[in-house]
Amino acid sequence: xxxxxxxxxxxxxxxxxxxxxxxxxxxxxxxxxxxxxxxxxxxxxxxxxxxxxxxxxxxxxxxxxxxxxxxxxxxxxxxxxxxxxxxxxxxxxxxxxxxxxxxxxxxxxxxxxxxxxxxxxxxxxxxxxxxxxxxxxxxxxxxxxxxxxxxxxxxxxxxxxxxxxxxxxxxxxxxxxxxxxxxxxxxxxxxxxxxxxxxxxxxxxxxxxxxxxxxxxxxxxxxxxxxxxxxxxxxxxxxxxxxxxxxxxxxxxxxxxxxxxxxxxxxxxxxxxxxxxxxxxxxxxxxxxxxxxxxxxxxxxxxxxxxxxxxxxxxxxxxxxxxxxxxxxxxxxxxxxxxxxxxxxxx
Length: 347
Known about the structure:
InterPro entries: Gfo/Idh/MocA-like_OxRdtase_C (IPR004104), Gfo/Idh/MocA-like_OxRdtase_N (IPR000683), Gfo/Idh/MocA_oxidoreduct (IPR051317), NAD(P)-bd_dom_sf (IPR036291). This protein is of the alpha/beta class.
Protein backbone atom coordinates (compact mmCIF):
# COMPACT_ATOMS: atom_id res chain seq x y z
CA UNK A 1 0.00 0.00 0.00
CA UNK A 2 1.37 3.38 -0.98
CA UNK A 3 1.30 5.96 1.81
CA UNK A 4 0.58 9.53 0.72
CA UNK A 5 2.35 11.95 3.05
CA UNK A 6 0.53 15.27 3.42
CA UNK A 7 1.68 18.80 4.03
CA UNK A 8 -1.40 20.72 5.19
CA UNK A 9 -1.60 24.46 4.57
CA UNK A 10 -4.04 26.00 7.02
CA UNK A 11 -5.58 24.66 10.22
CA UNK A 12 -8.91 26.45 10.39
CA UNK A 13 -12.53 25.41 9.93
CA UNK A 14 -12.09 23.86 6.48
CA UNK A 15 -9.17 21.69 7.58
CA UNK A 16 -10.82 20.59 10.80
CA UNK A 17 -14.27 19.83 9.36
CA UNK A 18 -13.86 18.82 5.72
CA UNK A 19 -10.38 17.36 5.38
CA UNK A 20 -8.83 15.95 8.55
CA UNK A 21 -11.76 13.66 9.50
CA UNK A 22 -11.20 11.72 6.26
CA UNK A 23 -7.41 11.70 6.30
CA UNK A 24 -7.20 10.70 9.99
CA UNK A 25 -9.28 7.54 9.53
CA UNK A 26 -7.61 6.48 6.27
CA UNK A 27 -4.32 4.62 6.79
CA UNK A 28 -3.25 5.44 3.23
CA UNK A 29 -2.76 9.10 4.19
CA UNK A 30 -0.45 10.59 6.80
CA UNK A 31 -0.39 14.28 7.71
CA UNK A 32 3.28 14.99 8.39
CA UNK A 33 3.36 18.79 8.56
CA UNK A 34 0.91 21.64 9.09
CA UNK A 35 1.53 25.24 8.07
CA UNK A 36 0.10 27.82 10.48
CA UNK A 37 1.43 31.36 10.50
CA UNK A 38 0.83 32.08 14.21
CA UNK A 39 -1.73 29.75 15.82
CA UNK A 40 -1.25 26.23 17.14
CA UNK A 41 -4.58 24.62 16.27
CA UNK A 42 -3.04 21.54 14.69
CA UNK A 43 -1.38 20.52 17.94
CA UNK A 44 -4.85 19.71 19.31
CA UNK A 45 -5.95 17.55 16.37
CA UNK A 46 -2.64 16.23 15.06
CA UNK A 47 -0.15 16.02 17.91
CA UNK A 48 2.18 13.86 15.83
CA UNK A 49 2.43 16.41 12.99
CA UNK A 50 5.08 19.12 12.84
CA UNK A 51 3.86 22.72 12.83
CA UNK A 52 5.78 25.02 10.47
CA UNK A 53 5.56 28.80 10.13
CA UNK A 54 6.14 29.29 6.40
CA UNK A 55 4.62 27.57 3.39
CA UNK A 56 7.97 26.67 1.86
CA UNK A 57 8.66 24.40 4.83
CA UNK A 58 5.90 22.08 3.58
CA UNK A 59 7.68 21.52 0.27
CA UNK A 60 10.24 19.02 1.51
CA UNK A 61 11.22 15.64 0.11
CA UNK A 62 9.07 13.47 2.37
CA UNK A 63 5.84 15.27 1.40
CA UNK A 64 3.82 13.89 -1.53
CA UNK A 65 0.60 15.92 -1.38
CA UNK A 66 0.02 19.55 -0.42
CA UNK A 67 -3.50 20.22 0.86
CA UNK A 68 -4.38 23.94 0.66
CA UNK A 69 -7.21 25.25 2.86
CA UNK A 70 -5.99 28.82 3.28
CA UNK A 71 -7.92 31.96 2.14
CA UNK A 72 -8.87 32.13 -1.53
CA UNK A 73 -6.44 34.97 -2.22
CA UNK A 74 -3.47 32.67 -1.43
CA UNK A 75 -4.42 29.76 -3.68
CA UNK A 76 -2.71 30.79 -6.90
CA UNK A 77 0.75 31.34 -5.42
CA UNK A 78 0.61 28.30 -3.16
CA UNK A 79 -0.61 25.93 -5.86
CA UNK A 80 2.03 27.20 -8.27
CA UNK A 81 4.84 26.86 -5.73
CA UNK A 82 3.71 23.37 -4.75
CA UNK A 83 3.55 22.16 -8.35
CA UNK A 84 6.94 23.65 -9.15
CA UNK A 85 8.30 21.76 -6.12
CA UNK A 86 7.02 18.51 -7.63
CA UNK A 87 4.07 17.97 -5.29
CA UNK A 88 0.54 16.78 -5.93
CA UNK A 89 -2.03 19.36 -4.80
CA UNK A 90 -5.52 19.22 -3.31
CA UNK A 91 -6.91 22.75 -3.03
CA UNK A 92 -10.13 24.06 -1.55
CA UNK A 93 -12.59 25.63 -3.94
CA UNK A 94 -12.36 28.00 -5.66
CA UNK A 95 -9.10 26.96 -7.26
CA UNK A 96 -8.38 30.61 -8.12
CA UNK A 97 -10.33 33.75 -9.00
CA UNK A 98 -9.95 33.77 -12.79
CA UNK A 99 -10.04 31.47 -15.79
CA UNK A 100 -6.63 32.74 -16.89
CA UNK A 101 -5.00 31.70 -13.61
CA UNK A 102 -6.77 28.34 -13.63
CA UNK A 103 -5.61 27.54 -17.14
CA UNK A 104 -2.04 28.45 -16.22
CA UNK A 105 -2.07 26.12 -13.21
CA UNK A 106 -3.69 23.31 -15.18
CA UNK A 107 -0.95 23.58 -17.80
CA UNK A 108 1.72 23.62 -15.10
CA UNK A 109 0.29 20.50 -13.43
CA UNK A 110 0.38 18.67 -16.76
CA UNK A 111 3.95 19.77 -17.43
CA UNK A 112 5.03 18.64 -13.97
CA UNK A 113 3.15 15.35 -14.24
CA UNK A 114 1.36 16.02 -10.96
CA UNK A 115 -2.24 15.79 -9.80
CA UNK A 116 -4.06 19.08 -9.25
CA UNK A 117 -7.39 18.28 -7.61
CA UNK A 118 -10.03 20.80 -6.49
CA UNK A 119 -12.16 19.99 -3.44
CA UNK A 120 -15.62 20.05 -5.05
CA UNK A 121 -17.02 17.73 -2.39
CA UNK A 122 -20.65 18.73 -2.72
CA UNK A 123 -21.16 16.63 -5.82
CA UNK A 124 -21.63 13.97 -3.15
CA UNK A 125 -24.38 15.80 -1.26
CA UNK A 126 -27.31 13.44 -0.82
CA UNK A 127 -29.75 15.37 -3.02
CA UNK A 128 -27.24 15.66 -5.87
CA UNK A 129 -26.27 11.99 -5.79
CA UNK A 130 -29.94 10.97 -5.62
CA UNK A 131 -30.96 13.32 -8.43
CA UNK A 132 -28.20 11.81 -10.57
CA UNK A 133 -29.73 8.36 -10.01
CA UNK A 134 -33.24 9.62 -10.76
CA UNK A 135 -32.05 11.21 -14.00
CA UNK A 136 -30.18 8.08 -15.05
CA UNK A 137 -33.33 6.02 -14.47
CA UNK A 138 -35.47 8.60 -16.31
CA UNK A 139 -38.05 8.63 -13.51
CA UNK A 140 -39.24 12.16 -14.31
CA UNK A 141 -39.30 12.13 -18.09
CA UNK A 142 -37.89 15.13 -19.95
CA UNK A 143 -36.71 17.65 -17.36
CA UNK A 144 -38.00 21.21 -17.58
CA UNK A 145 -36.89 23.03 -14.42
CA UNK A 146 -34.41 22.58 -11.59
CA UNK A 147 -33.66 24.77 -8.57
CA UNK A 148 -30.82 24.29 -6.09
CA UNK A 149 -30.52 26.53 -3.05
CA UNK A 150 -27.86 27.06 -0.42
CA UNK A 151 -29.62 29.18 2.19
CA UNK A 152 -28.16 30.23 5.52
CA UNK A 153 -28.98 32.80 8.15
CA UNK A 154 -26.25 35.20 9.22
CA UNK A 155 -27.41 38.49 10.74
CA UNK A 156 -23.86 39.85 10.74
CA UNK A 157 -21.07 39.80 8.20
CA UNK A 158 -18.57 36.94 8.27
CA UNK A 159 -16.12 37.15 11.17
CA UNK A 160 -13.32 36.02 8.86
CA UNK A 161 -11.96 39.36 7.69
CA UNK A 162 -10.51 37.98 4.44
CA UNK A 163 -13.98 36.91 3.33
CA UNK A 164 -15.36 40.45 3.68
CA UNK A 165 -12.45 42.55 2.39
CA UNK A 166 -13.78 42.85 -1.17
CA UNK A 167 -10.87 41.09 -2.85
CA UNK A 168 -11.48 39.38 -6.19
CA UNK A 169 -12.37 35.73 -5.66
CA UNK A 170 -14.32 36.30 -2.46
CA UNK A 171 -18.03 36.73 -1.75
CA UNK A 172 -20.98 34.35 -1.81
CA UNK A 173 -20.74 33.47 -5.51
CA UNK A 174 -17.15 32.28 -5.05
CA UNK A 175 -17.97 30.68 -1.69
CA UNK A 176 -21.24 28.82 -2.26
CA UNK A 177 -22.04 29.59 -5.89
CA UNK A 178 -18.94 27.69 -6.97
CA UNK A 179 -20.52 24.58 -5.41
CA UNK A 180 -23.95 25.09 -6.97
CA UNK A 181 -22.53 25.74 -10.43
CA UNK A 182 -20.37 22.64 -10.16
CA UNK A 183 -23.45 20.63 -9.15
CA UNK A 184 -25.31 21.96 -12.18
CA UNK A 185 -22.47 20.97 -14.52
CA UNK A 186 -22.25 17.55 -12.87
CA UNK A 187 -25.95 16.88 -13.39
CA UNK A 188 -26.60 18.57 -16.74
CA UNK A 189 -23.36 19.72 -18.34
CA UNK A 190 -22.47 23.15 -19.65
CA UNK A 191 -25.38 25.58 -20.16
CA UNK A 192 -25.91 27.68 -23.25
CA UNK A 193 -26.52 31.02 -21.54
CA UNK A 194 -26.46 32.74 -18.13
CA UNK A 195 -28.47 35.45 -16.44
CA UNK A 196 -27.66 36.57 -12.89
CA UNK A 197 -28.75 38.95 -10.15
CA UNK A 198 -26.02 39.45 -7.54
CA UNK A 199 -26.79 41.55 -4.45
CA UNK A 200 -25.09 43.08 -1.40
CA UNK A 201 -27.58 42.91 1.48
CA UNK A 202 -25.51 43.25 4.64
CA UNK A 203 -25.02 46.87 5.64
CA UNK A 204 -21.65 48.09 4.37
CA UNK A 205 -20.99 44.85 2.50
CA UNK A 206 -17.97 44.88 0.17
CA UNK A 207 -18.70 41.40 -1.18
CA UNK A 208 -21.85 39.83 -2.58
CA UNK A 209 -24.04 37.98 -0.08
CA UNK A 210 -27.06 37.00 -2.20
CA UNK A 211 -27.37 35.65 -5.72
CA UNK A 212 -29.94 34.34 -8.16
CA UNK A 213 -28.28 32.63 -11.15
CA UNK A 214 -30.23 31.27 -14.14
CA UNK A 215 -28.59 28.70 -16.43
CA UNK A 216 -30.30 28.06 -19.77
CA UNK A 217 -30.04 24.77 -21.63
CA UNK A 218 -31.44 23.30 -24.84
CA UNK A 219 -35.13 22.42 -25.25
CA UNK A 220 -36.23 25.11 -22.79
CA UNK A 221 -34.68 23.51 -19.68
CA UNK A 222 -33.56 26.03 -17.06
CA UNK A 223 -31.68 25.77 -13.77
CA UNK A 224 -31.97 28.32 -10.99
CA UNK A 225 -29.20 28.54 -8.39
CA UNK A 226 -29.86 30.66 -5.30
CA UNK A 227 -28.14 31.51 -2.05
CA UNK A 228 -28.93 33.94 0.72
CA UNK A 229 -27.56 34.80 4.15
CA UNK A 230 -30.95 36.06 5.29
CA UNK A 231 -32.95 32.83 5.16
CA UNK A 232 -33.91 32.00 8.72
CA UNK A 233 -36.55 29.64 7.33
CA UNK A 234 -35.03 28.05 4.22
CA UNK A 235 -36.86 26.98 1.09
CA UNK A 236 -36.49 23.44 -0.30
CA UNK A 237 -32.84 22.66 -0.98
CA UNK A 238 -33.48 20.85 -4.26
CA UNK A 239 -36.40 20.87 -6.72
CA UNK A 240 -36.41 19.01 -10.04
CA UNK A 241 -39.45 18.95 -12.34
CA UNK A 242 -39.94 16.82 -15.43
CA UNK A 243 -42.81 16.13 -17.78
CA UNK A 244 -43.72 13.00 -15.80
CA UNK A 245 -43.11 14.19 -12.27
CA UNK A 246 -40.98 15.86 -9.63
CA UNK A 247 -38.29 15.19 -7.04
CA UNK A 248 -38.13 17.62 -4.11
CA UNK A 249 -35.80 17.47 -1.10
CA UNK A 250 -36.49 19.93 1.67
CA UNK A 251 -33.48 19.33 3.87
CA UNK A 252 -29.88 20.10 3.05
CA UNK A 253 -27.27 17.36 3.12
CA UNK A 254 -26.25 16.38 6.66
CA UNK A 255 -22.52 15.77 6.20
CA UNK A 256 -21.28 19.22 7.22
CA UNK A 257 -23.30 19.16 10.45
CA UNK A 258 -22.15 15.64 11.30
CA UNK A 259 -18.51 16.50 10.69
CA UNK A 260 -18.79 19.69 12.76
CA UNK A 261 -20.13 17.55 15.62
CA UNK A 262 -17.22 15.14 15.46
CA UNK A 263 -18.87 12.16 13.78
CA UNK A 264 -16.18 9.89 12.33
CA UNK A 265 -16.85 9.31 8.59
CA UNK A 266 -16.87 5.53 8.42
CA UNK A 267 -19.45 2.97 7.22
CA UNK A 268 -22.94 4.53 6.92
CA UNK A 269 -21.97 7.57 8.96
CA UNK A 270 -24.15 9.99 6.96
CA UNK A 271 -27.22 7.85 6.33
CA UNK A 272 -30.36 9.98 6.59
CA UNK A 273 -33.65 8.81 8.08
CA UNK A 274 -36.69 8.39 5.84
CA UNK A 275 -38.13 11.65 7.17
CA UNK A 276 -35.13 13.46 5.64
CA UNK A 277 -35.40 11.82 2.21
CA UNK A 278 -36.72 13.73 -0.76
CA UNK A 279 -40.18 13.15 -2.21
CA UNK A 280 -40.60 11.49 -5.60
CA UNK A 281 -43.97 12.32 -7.19
CA UNK A 282 -44.18 10.83 -10.65
CA UNK A 283 -45.78 8.32 -12.97
CA UNK A 284 -44.38 4.78 -13.17
CA UNK A 285 -45.90 2.21 -15.56
CA UNK A 286 -49.00 4.33 -15.85
CA UNK A 287 -49.49 4.70 -12.10
CA UNK A 288 -49.01 7.96 -10.20
CA UNK A 289 -46.86 7.51 -7.10
CA UNK A 290 -45.87 9.94 -4.37
CA UNK A 291 -43.43 8.60 -1.78
CA UNK A 292 -40.17 9.26 0.06
CA UNK A 293 -37.33 8.27 -2.23
CA UNK A 294 -34.24 6.63 -0.64
CA UNK A 295 -31.00 8.56 -0.89
CA UNK A 296 -28.35 7.22 -3.20
CA UNK A 297 -25.42 6.20 -1.01
CA UNK A 298 -22.74 8.87 -1.30
CA UNK A 299 -20.16 10.57 0.89
CA UNK A 300 -17.36 13.10 0.64
CA UNK A 301 -15.15 10.05 1.17
CA UNK A 302 -15.81 9.30 -2.53
CA UNK A 303 -13.67 12.33 -3.43
CA UNK A 304 -10.88 11.29 -1.04
CA UNK A 305 -10.93 7.75 -2.45
CA UNK A 306 -10.68 9.05 -6.00
CA UNK A 307 -7.90 11.44 -5.01
CA UNK A 308 -5.89 8.52 -3.64
CA UNK A 309 -6.48 6.39 -6.72
CA UNK A 310 -5.52 9.30 -8.98
CA UNK A 311 -2.22 9.79 -7.13
CA UNK A 312 -1.33 6.14 -6.46
CA UNK A 313 -2.77 4.37 -9.49
CA UNK A 314 -3.10 7.06 -12.17
CA UNK A 315 -6.90 6.83 -12.09
CA UNK A 316 -9.08 9.33 -13.92
CA UNK A 317 -10.01 12.24 -11.61
CA UNK A 318 -13.72 12.61 -10.99
CA UNK A 319 -13.30 16.39 -10.64
CA UNK A 320 -11.59 17.36 -13.88
CA UNK A 321 -9.72 20.60 -14.38
CA UNK A 322 -11.66 21.49 -17.53
CA UNK A 323 -14.83 21.33 -15.39
CA UNK A 324 -13.20 23.55 -12.76
CA UNK A 325 -12.28 26.04 -15.48
CA UNK A 326 -15.83 25.96 -16.85
CA UNK A 327 -17.20 26.77 -13.39
CA UNK A 328 -14.89 29.77 -13.17
CA UNK A 329 -15.90 30.88 -16.66
CA UNK A 330 -19.55 30.82 -15.62
CA UNK A 331 -18.71 32.80 -12.47
CA UNK A 332 -17.02 35.47 -14.57
CA UNK A 333 -20.13 35.61 -16.79
CA UNK A 334 -22.37 35.77 -13.69
CA UNK A 335 -20.77 39.05 -12.63
CA UNK A 336 -20.83 40.34 -16.20
CA UNK A 337 -24.54 39.58 -16.45
CA UNK A 338 -25.30 41.09 -13.05
CA UNK A 339 -23.54 44.30 -14.02
CA UNK A 340 -25.15 44.59 -17.46
CA UNK A 341 -28.57 43.21 -16.58
CA UNK A 342 -28.41 41.02 -19.68
CA UNK A 343 -28.59 37.32 -20.44
CA UNK A 344 -25.21 36.28 -21.84
CA UNK A 345 -24.51 33.40 -24.22
CA UNK A 346 -21.57 31.23 -23.24
CA UNK A 347 -18.82 30.79 -25.77
